[in-house]
């Protein structure tokens, strides 16, 4: 914990704050509310970011946390990459117009939606985008790690439930900076 390339290092904590700011900015641009920061989802994101040290990009899937959805990115600025999937979503909606109403409010029981976000059956992958802009979400956590095959990895988790103990991004940033400057 706290090792130079670990998700808990000072440099990587600072990088994750920028990612959180970018996530809220991207959400605001499409009319989705800014999310609060969950210490629990942040811890999960740190664990999952450090899990990427084994190589590749993998969802650990060893926990279940209140309907959390996870995005993982490696080797590039995550928010920009995930937002590029908006074009895929638009193409998927052109293919199946019944998807249009699900852009900001997912329905995992709808097989066409699941296929579209996962990029199955002729659809283009759009799940990172729809996870990022999901209007049901209330809280998020994010972590950055600099020790995998791609140079670095970023993990984003968001949930619509259990916002107890969550902080505004400003509060979280202040807390992290106070801790780093102690």
Automatic annotation (TrEMBL):
Q: Which residues form the SCP domain?
A: 21-152
Return the InterPro entries for the record. CAP_dom, CAP_sf
Source superkingdom: Bacteria
Query: Which Pfam families has this protein been placed in?
Result: CAP
Q: Which residues form a coiled coil?
A: none
Name of this chain's protein = SCP domain-containing protein
């Amino acid at each position: 914990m706290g090792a130079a390339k670990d998700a808990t290092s000072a440099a990587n904590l600072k990088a994750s704050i920028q990612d959180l700011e970018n996530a809220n900015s991207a959400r605001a641009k499409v009319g989705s509310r800014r999310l609060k920061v969950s210490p629990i989802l942040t811890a999960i994101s740190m664990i999952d970011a450090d899990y990427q040290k084994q190589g590749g990009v993998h969802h650990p899937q060893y926990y279940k946390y209140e309907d959390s959805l996870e995005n993982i990115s490696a080797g590039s600025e995550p928010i920009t990459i995930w937002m590029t999937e908006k074009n895929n979503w638009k193409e998927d909606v052109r293919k199946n117009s019944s998807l249009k109403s699900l852009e900001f409010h997912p329905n995992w029981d709808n097989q066409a939606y699941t296929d579209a976000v996962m990029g199955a059956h002729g659809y283009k992958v759009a799940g990172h985008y729809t996870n990022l802009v999901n209007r049901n979400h209330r809280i998020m956590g994010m972590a950055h790690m600099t020790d995998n095959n791609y140079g670095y990895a970023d993990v984003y988790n968001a949930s619509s439930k259990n916002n107890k103990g969550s902080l505004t991004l400003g509060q979280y940033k202040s807390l992290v900076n106070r801790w780093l400057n102690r």
